[in-house]
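Page 47, continued from p. 46.
Same chain as before, 178 aa.
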Amino acid sequence: MSKMLYFWKNINLKFKNLKPVYVLITLFLLGCTRDDICSEQTLTTPLLVIEFRDVNNRSEAKSVQDLQILINNIDSAIVVTSVSDTLVKIPLDTENNLSSFLFIANAGNDTNRNIDAVTINYEREEVYVNRACSFKMNYNQLAIDVEDEPIEDLWILNSEIINPVVTNENEAHITIFH
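Result:
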């Protein structure tokens, strides 16, 4: 019996210094509410959804061979998020009313690479989400401009705004025909 008593005294002495840590952890866990954590299901700033279609048969989706989309600036960061071969999502600039991109078809082929400069214009609308997620940006009055160059140099032959308001990523906002 004395061995058991000795065991519990040693355990109590070892964990005596940890009591303040347990108290802090408990207070932290009890101090967090559901509003303190931004859920992944909460809609935040949406990406622009672009679909690619055949210029000769506008109802038919058409993939772009080896597509790469870069932000048209000094860094030229790659921004494309492929959803499928015919649908991509890209972020718009939250600080300016336009975003400029380089759309590159055949990006991996030096002889057939074709680059079109595309500018997306819009109006920004800041919307409060909640305390945890803060604000998100919605985009209104979309407009697209493809750089003028000789028609034989363009791979983007036409474009169409399907939905001029970007508030979610559930449907395409712009169609590019090639």
